[in-house]
């Protein structure tokens, strides 16, 4: 007996895959969504206890999703957001299969279908579909620099995805490596717990939490900051920029800056470079990293000011935000270029060095030389294959939750218009 052929299979039930499923269901397209864990698994298992979303609740709603909190301007925890996704799936009756890991994908060229093999309830099952949407994102495989293996075994090392709170660490000081959103927020969490913290920085921008009467994201949406198309970018380095430092911690979030962390007691260091036994070495670029972050904030505020003036928008003058005041002399920067972990009583290292996507189950030629998806605007190089949930998929906003709706609608629109839909 021939197996039925689904129109579409979606891999991943985070906000991206769920949003695609909504639009597929709206079009009456038969499909299944496979999730290796629970709905929103990454949000449940790869965030620390005090984590808060960086964008307000009102910006994180999927299409037709009822507001899941009374305060639209508050910041949900990771677990709260995951539960909201779960409720959304139930509300819309979306066909999600949890604890269903995709093992491999093969392309049947003769029939023009995808053969997707999954591990389901302890056994392997193969499903067939005419089109395939990869919504597993780019954060499934942790990245830790190779020189971490050179450090003494006595030092406890965790990736940011494994860190939950300061209580899981042994007594002693903590080195946090990486100063993007996760690094600065984990450093702040450790400082609040009374830990002594060293922070190894990189070149990362920052933005104030609020500016001229609004949350910074409200301004960025209004001025069209996130509407830049990937095809418009001529400098490839812009596509690799990390998301700027900002935090949703506290009642209304807070500005995150290296100078504010230094005032809280953190020692601000340069980029971690190499290691030998109990010693880790840093590049002498701490001051330039501090100044880069400050300049990024200044530039974003200038864009907002210009928009206000050009469009004659009523907005109050900016309040003084001590955490956003630039450190013009980079006085918060330490000039240390190496640390003896034993001498400094550093017993733990948290690597907030990011993730890469795990697409090992996909066949060639759908990946490029870097083993990343080959696509344009989410449309893969193989007919019927699509990607969503990747940074700069179509626009700058593709990397954030509020940008996923437009990408999902685009992908599903392409599926509907494809000549492969409905082929027998």
Automatic annotation (TrEMBL):
InterPro entries: Auxin_biosynth/cation_transpt (IPR050982), FAD/NAD-bd_sf (IPR036188). The keyword Oxidoreductase applies. Coiled coil: none annotated. It comes from the Bacteria. It holds the Pfam family Pyr_redox_3. Keywords: Oxidoreductase. PANTHER family: FLAVIN-BINDING MONOOXYGENASE-LIKE PROTEIN (AFU_ORTHOLOGUE AFUA_4G09220) (PTHR43539), FLAVIN-CONTAINING MONOOXYGENASE (PTHR43539:SF78). This is NAD(P)/FAD-dependent oxidoreductase. The lineage of its organism: Bacteria, Pseudomonadati, Bacteroidota, Cytophagia, Cytophagales.
